[in-house]
């Protein structure tokens, strides 16, 4: 066939009666945006035109990876070919993570149950795909991390919102689950949580685990903020349940966000499913990051200095934010967030945060990112950056509200 004839056939495939035929788009991609990323973009646009912005929107440490991790990465670059690894991760890192549970929680974990992932985000995807089928019902607290609901919806799993508030420290309880009606297939919990920073106490955690066991509900515990707590350490769900899915990350306590590395402690019955999914979808986690992360567990002294700074930032904002009118705050037991009820100030947190950015030079995240139903009355402040930044941010907010 001549080139002209081939072009004619291709043209006929696309056009019919002079009308362009629409190509199919999947509904899986029709999920809400991760709003904090939009706020980051708006803040960057302000900076590009010369405005100084205090960043209280993004939930990442502004410190780099600890020095031992950097040294291990240099060594890997010089002496490691950095090819593919096993889908579940390199043995030394899986063993190091298992040892971490012994040292931190007093728990014995078989390294074979450790699944190293490309960030905790990959961990959630592997967890959801291995544990649930299309149409299953998975519950989560609202407010909560938006990617939970958005990933679940993208893979056609029904999201069951659990509206929670200060009366339960913004955490789910067995009573709330009992009031739902209908069979649940899964429950996602986070302690400390994003956006509220609240934690579930040991007795309440045990009660939730027992409820899930009695009702046949698969429990997924997001523990990525473990290590960043203020009055008491966080308790791992693994202390109570062998069949729960535990997800953690090197991004928060270990200050390695851009290295894109996390892990799962997987139940035995899901381990092979996760391995096969990981082989096909991701091949393996980033090799350089894995080699470097082996050293992270030896850097606790350096990492704990970051916690000292978060502690100071938290105390500063809990004292100063009420002076700016933010006087209804979640307990902020852990993580590096303060969740503020701003219903006395606005019923449109997105517009309010846009004004805050332009008029006060402070970037914060509107609550709709975390709670689609009630989030217009809430704002999240992150205190992960320097104490100097937090002081300046508080000063600007007090002057702006005044």
Q: Can you describe what's shown?
A:
This protein is α/β, with parallel strands linked by helices and 402 residues long. It folds into two domains: 32-64 and 300-401, Type I PLP-dependent aspartate aminotransferase-like (Major domain) (Aspartate Aminotransferase, domain 2), CATH 3.40.640.10; 67-298, Type I PLP-dependent aspartate aminotransferase-like (Major domain) (Aspartate Aminotransferase, domain 2, 3-Layer(aba) Sandwich). Helix content is 41%, strand content 14%. The chain is built from 13 helices and 14 strands. It has a seven-stranded mixed sheet, sandwiched between helices. Helix 8 links the parallel strand 7 (186-190) and strand 8 (218-222). Helix 5 (119-131) packs across helix 6 (146-154).
- Structure annotation, total helices: 13
CATH topology of the largest domain: Aspartate Aminotransferase, domain 2
Main sheet makeup: 7 strands, mixed
Order of helices and strands: HEEHEHHEHEHEHEHEEEHHHEHEEEH
Coarse structural class: alpha/beta
Q: Tell me the count of domains.
A: 2
Q: Any idea what the CATH superfamily of the largest domain is called?
A: Type I PLP-dependent aspartate aminotransferase-like (Major domain)
Describe the global form: globular
| Beta strand % | 5-15%
Assembly context of the chains: single chain
Rg over C-alpha atoms, rounded to the nearest angstrom: 23 Å
> Which strand order spans the largest sheet, edge to edge or round the barrel?
4-10-9-8-7-5-6
Q: Overall mean pLDDT score?
A: 93
Please identify the top-level CATH class of the largest domain.
Alpha Beta
Which CATH-level-2 architecture of the largest domain?
Answer: 3-Layer(aba) Sandwich
């Amino acid at each position: 066939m001549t080139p002209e004839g081939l072009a004619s056939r291709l043209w006929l495939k696309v056009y019919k009666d002079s009308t362009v035929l629409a190509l199919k788009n999947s509904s899986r991609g029709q999920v809400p945006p991760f709003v904090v990323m939009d706020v980051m973009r708006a803040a960057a646009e302000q900076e590009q035109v010369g405005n100084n912005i205090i960043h209280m929107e993004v939930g990442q440490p502004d410190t780099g990876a600890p020095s031992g991790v950097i040294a291990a990465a240099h060594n890997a670059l010089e002496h490691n070919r950095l090819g593919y690894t096993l889908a579940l991760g390199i043995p030394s890192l899986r063993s190091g993570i298992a040892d971490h549970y012994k040292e931190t929680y007093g728990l014995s974990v078989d390294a074979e149950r450790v699944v190293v992932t490309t960030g905790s985000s990959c961990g959630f995807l592997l967890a959801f795909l291995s544990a649930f089928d299309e149409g299953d019902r998975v519950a989560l607290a609202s407010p909560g991390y938006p990617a939970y609901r958005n990933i679940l919806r993208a893979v056609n799993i029904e999201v069951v919102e659990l509206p929670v508030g200060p009366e339960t420290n913004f955490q789910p309880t067995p009573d709330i689950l009992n009031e739902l009606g209908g069979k649940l297939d899964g429950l996602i919990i986070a302690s400390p949580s994003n956006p509220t920073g609240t934690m579930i106490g040991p007795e309440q955690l045990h009660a939730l685990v027992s409820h899930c066991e009695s009702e046949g509900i698969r429990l997924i515990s997001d523990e990525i903020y473990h290590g960043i707590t203020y009055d008491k350490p966080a308790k791992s769900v693994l202390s109570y349940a062998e069949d729960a899915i535990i997800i953690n990350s090197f991004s928060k306590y270990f200050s390695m966000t851009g290295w894109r590395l996390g892990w799962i402690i997987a139940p035995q019955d899901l381990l092979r499913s996760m391995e096969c999914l990981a082989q096909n979808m991701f091949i393996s986690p980033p090799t350089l990051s894995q080699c470097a992360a082996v050293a992270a567990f030896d850097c606790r002294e350096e990492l704990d200095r970051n916690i000292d700074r978060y502690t100071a930032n938290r105390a500063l904002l809990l004292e100063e934010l009420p002076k700016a009118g933010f006087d209804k705050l979640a307990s902020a037991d852990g993580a590096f967030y303060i969740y503020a009820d701003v219903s006395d100030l606005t019923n449109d947190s997105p517009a309010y945060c846009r004004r805050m950015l332009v008029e006060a030079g402070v970037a914060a995240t509107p609550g709709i990112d975390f709670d689609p139903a009630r989030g217009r009355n809430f704002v999240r402040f992150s205190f992960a950056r320097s104490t100097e930044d937090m002081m300046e941010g508080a000063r600007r907010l007090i002057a702006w509200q005044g």
